[in-house]
Amino acid sequence: MRVVIDTNLLVSAVIRDRLPERVLLWCLGQSDIEWLVTPEIMSEYSAVIQRPKFSLPGATINWWLELLATDTRMIEARDKIDFPRDRKDASFLMCAASGKADYLITGDGDFSEAQALIATPILSVRAFADAVAPQTLVVPEG
What we know:
Helix 1 packs across helix 2. This protein has helices at 7-15, 19-29, 39-49, 58-71, 90-98, 125-132, 134-137; strands spanning 2-5, 34-37, 73-74, 103-105, 122-123. The mean pLDDT is 89. By secondary structure, the chain is α/β, with parallel strands linked by helices. The chain is globular, with a radius of gyration of 14 Å.
């Protein structure tokens, strides 16, 4: 399985110990799952998690950057997609299309308008967890 993961999920995973972190670490730990990235996406991941407003410890930033560098699969985005609603999101759509991803996982509502642009299903982290590994990833509420 191939997945593309939006930056907002990475930020949620890095900051909070909840479902986004479980999903990202689970994806990285599965030998049959490839987390696809492009150079542009890796640059965005790096820049965003290092933003001063998050006040993340250097060790946390370094741990995640190392994990991303060693456990994601870098591809070239050959498919060009224009997404005027949020041009920064176009890189994730292009990565999903070029890499023939099985899922694009996001928490960004803007992507609902993008589904018509790519064949890859665009899911929330909860919908992905429910669809792929509910017994492993979804912890009952309460």
